[in-house]
Amino acid sequence: MFQSRIIARGYELDSYGHVNNAVFFNYFEQARWELFQKLGLLDELTGKGLFLVVVEVNLRYQHEIRLGDEVEITTIVKKDEPFIIFEQRMKIVPGGQAVARARVKTVFVDSQRISHDIPWSIDSVFTS
What is the C-alpha separation between 9 and 7, in angstroms, rounded? Predict the structure, then answer.
């Protein structure tokens, strides 16, 4: 399990005064990037010429985020060969108000956009 925090910024707000719904995708993606960076996997992927591509997203909005709110994103990674699935939850801190949850299905592709199995070195990091 990995946790990441983001503070809502003014340019992310829509005309209703809360974070635009499309920004939620960015928050979840940022948490995934941070996870790969923390585990030292970004350089490995680059070295293998592989890219992690999102192929399916299911996002459930539960509550708005307002300017200055700090959100915590919890990410759990699961394998379903050849896919890596990220199950993510977002809540406001402090307080723990749930704001969204997402299930993001990804696959590895090379520069020719051909899909690949999960590389062994990455496979060994995540649970099934």
Answer: 6
Nearest in space to 90 (alpha carbons), one of 78, 75, 105: 75
- Cα–Cα distance, 107 to 119 (Å, whole number): 11
Instruction: Kindly report, residue by residue over 50-102, the tens digit of the pLDDT.
Output: 999 999 999 999 999 999 999 999 999 999 999 999 999 999 999 999 999 99
> 26 CB contacts (<8 Å, ≥6 apart)?
none
Continuous segment of H or E residues that includes residue 67: none
Q: pLDDT (tens digit, 9 = 90+) per residue, 99-118?
A: 999 999 999 999 999 999 98
β-pair partners for 56: 105
Beta-carbon contacts of 96 under 8 Å, excluding residues fewer than 6 positions away, are none
Q: Does domain 2-123 have CATH number 3.10.129.10?
A: yes
- Interval 10-29 mean pLDDT: 96
CB-based contact 76:102 (threshold 8 Å): no
